[in-house]
Predict the structure.
Amino acid sequence: MGATSRADQAFEQLESLIMELSSQDVDRLPPETELSQKFGVSRATIREALGRLEAAGRVQRRRGRGTVLMPLVRPALRYPANIIGSFADFLKESGVDHRLLEFSVTHMELEDDIVRMFDEGSPSNSGFRSVRCYALGDVPAALLYHLLPATIQGQPLCVEKLRGDIVPFLESVHQVQIDSVTSAITAEEASDDVARQLGLKQGSAVLVMYTRVIDSKGATLALGALAFNPAVVTLGVEALEHVTAGGQLQFPTGWLQRNIATRSPARREENETTY
């Protein structure tokens, strides 16, 4: 591996370390000697990577204080709570640098309270959970969780074709007409898993938008919870006029925490699907 490749790898490893330390309220990196041993590269390689990070405004090297982490300052992205469509399309239209960190679909048994919120009338509690994590640049911005029944309008859910956002999937694959996405917004204490995935301190307050995807006949096709990193994504004030205070949503207490399995800090690849 050449010197440039080693520096690139060290740069990426330091970026990850900075995110981890920032979430723990640590304000500086370990000494260069310790970083060199940790990543198995020379001090010259570490210094090169630190120089790039300093140029990017992520750190500042100060005599007598070491390498200090700099706060990440970025304008918060305003997300319209009443949107009907794709979160990924919204990010594209906003022109921001973004990427999908994780995508997975898992078969699961749905809670009775959740099954009753669907309009399939099926005695089975079988369903699926979709999980996506988006980042703006290298900063985790939003976690999107959706629960879907095993059947949509009497037909088996084509889960093998689910590769992204829920609304486009339902419209294009199942040929259903989405009439509305009803939303309710709350501020909640982030669970350990949510905090870790969004790069937040444990117990931080996060904005959660619960959603109900409804077709033209008034049937509920999907239930979702969108958890946002408040430093990166906010809700536009004008959108709040279109958001219910809970009303017909009435998600069971603790739904978000109970329906997210304990997850590894490692990111899953975009094409990983389990069911």
Confidence is low (pLDDT under 50) at residues 237-249, 260-275. The chain has two domains: 3-69, 77-258. The CA atoms of residues 143 and 194 lie 8 Å apart. The longest helix spans residues 3-23.
